[in-house]
Amino acid sequence: MTPRPTPALDGVRVLDLASVGPGARASRILADYGADVVKVGAVPRAGAVQIIPPYYAYSGNRGMTRALFDLKDDDGREAFLRLADRADVIIESFRPGVVDKLGVGHAVVSARNDRIVYCSTSGYGQTGPRSTWAGHDVNYLATSGFLDCSGRRGDGRPPLPGATVADIAAGGMQAAMAVMAALLRRERTGEGEHLDVSIADGAMAMMSLYVDEYLATGVEPGPGHYILTGRYACYEIYTCADGRFVSVGAIEPAFWRNLCRLVGLERYADTQTDDSIQDEIRAALAEVFATRSRDEWVELLGPADTCVAPVNTVAEAVDDEQYVARGTVADAVSATDGPFRQSAPIWAGTVLPDGPYDVRDGSLTDTAGLLAVAGCDTHEIDELLATGAVA
């Protein structure tokens, strides 16, 4: 039997102070690569707003432990810092300046542990005129130009995206990538660093294709400006006879010709980018696609080099033959809610378990055991628990 490979981040200890959002997504990625992630929260009596996701959210925090501290209490704060002394990474998602007021900011932690990689994720970054603004995914997509380059609703407004694109890619994935790069650099320098992860900056980076075009040419992108934003009929969504939809992405001329031939519209094979007849081509394609069901079109066109694929619902996506074959859904067993399915680690290089994932009771904590490993004695831990400094 081939031995199981060692996870890429095996032995890396991460303290994650984020309960939801990009920070939680980043720690989910790091844990899937084998990092030892501790979810850090506030003790119940600390008065902080407690956001407890449902048991299935963020893949049930599988493979993670949990510790609770009162960071406004001197003893609770020091207990957290004892864990930080031995940690490799800290992730936090407070507004800029909050961790410093709590006494657990980068300056304090790095003075005790100069190898710490301290990742601060926030909406607009630690600096700048909007650094203290509240915000959510839609705001970062709005300020970066992402929404403006999207299509329009009937009244002219940009549509709401179907997923939290900024939180996932611009924030969570950026943070995970930055942390792994910082760990790699630490191997050469021996020193940690403070990472300032701005979700809005990440959203701007996702727009770089259009931003670079504007900066170089002065031409301002927008809906219908470019092939990827709806200028041509070859890159569009069409309605089928059963009311479901197909996506068409036949950008390359060869794929476009294949599509035209198979749907009986050869007359448009050489006019793919003729702006004067795009409405005509769209209408012709819409009429053709309305003659068969979505799945019939996908069966005919999908394998035929036409860049056609179904618009799946989430329910359809999790049972789609491609995703099933790739193992993107995993079995899990919740200690409180029983067996269920969840998103599997899909990142290249992750090591999968031999059986279902175990999802613990989300109310359990590991604070005492973690403090013991950090060097606290039994009497000290009992005192901390008794006073409510930790839980």
Describe the structure.
This protein has 391 residues and is of the alpha/beta class. The protein folds into 2 domains: 13-206 and 361-387, 3-Layer(aba) Sandwich (Rossmann fold), CATH 3.40.50; 227-239 and 245-310, formyl-coa transferase, domain 3. It is built from 15 helices and 12 strands. It has helices spanning 21-32, 74-85, 98-102, 106-112, 137-143, 165-189, 199-206, 208-217, 253-262, 278-289, 294-301, 314-318, 321-326, 367-373, 378-387; strands spanning 13-16, 36-42, 65-69, 89-92, 117-122, 193-198, 235-239, 245-249, 308-310, 329-334, 338-343, 357-359. A 6-stranded parallel beta sheet has the order 3-2-1-4-5-6, with helices on both faces. A hairpin with a 5-residue loop joins strand 7 (235-239) and strand 8 (245-249). Helix 5 (137-143) packs across helix 7 and helix 6 (165-189) crosses helix 7 (199-206). The radius of gyration is 25 Å and the shape is elongated.
